[in-house]
Amino acid sequence: MTPELEQLTAEITVCRRCPRLVAWREEVAIEKRAAFADEEYWGRPVPGFGDAGAELVIVGLAPAAHGANRTGRMFTGDRSGEWLYRALYESGFASQPESVGRDDGLTLTNAWVTAPLRCAPPQNKPQPAERDNCAGWFHRELDLLDSASVYVTLGQYAFVSLWHYMADSVALPRPRPKFAHGEEIPLVDGRTILTSFHPSQQNTFTRRLTREMFAGVFERARDLTQLRHSGP
Questions:
Q1: Domains (ranges, CATH) in the chain?
Q2: Would you say 134 and 118 are in contact if contact means Cβ atoms under 8 Å apart?
Q3: DSSP E strands: which ranges in 86-134?
Q4: Around Cβ 206, how many Cβ atoms within 10 Å?
Q5: Statement: residue 232 has pLDDT above 90
Q6: In whole angstroms, how far apart are CA 190 and each of 1, 41, 145, 193?
């Protein structure tokens, strides 16, 4: 990790800008889920994770209350993470197909995982002021990930958050494309946005999102990053 990303991580993990989110994340960390009663919860804002030189950036929504809020790493220790890291492993971006804790040995190659929100929101529903408070962290992080060329947005919230970030730096298609799974949006500066349904249980249990659908997004991300290195 670069010194700039290390500094950003240090600042993110001590943030207390949103009283409602601070209270919620810390309450969850004290009360815990029965299955994790013997674990020490992270209970703080969660930084991004991965390869600082990544060409692929994956954008989620927020830490899960008993996932990243427990483990301290994005998409780690919950069902959504099981889907994400398996897909990253199968497409060559992750060293192993699961992510269970910060010390599990997982490394990412050419990929970075983040979210526009750093604290677990009650019912996964952040308020507008909380979104705005966290936008500065998200935008600084994306600025530092200056090798990124492909962005995978997991869900509409991630898609809109990334769109707002890019609006200040690149001419975007107008009107903004409607969010749907499997869309590919090429930008005039050569970058690409890929869209996917979020691998939440609400989507995976109902088969609105299947393994094949999800894997296809990351296979396309792999192909796009490899194309940038192929000769004419």
A1: 3-227 (3.40.470.10)
A2: yes
A3: 111-114
A4: 9
A5: no
A6: 25, 41, 15, 10
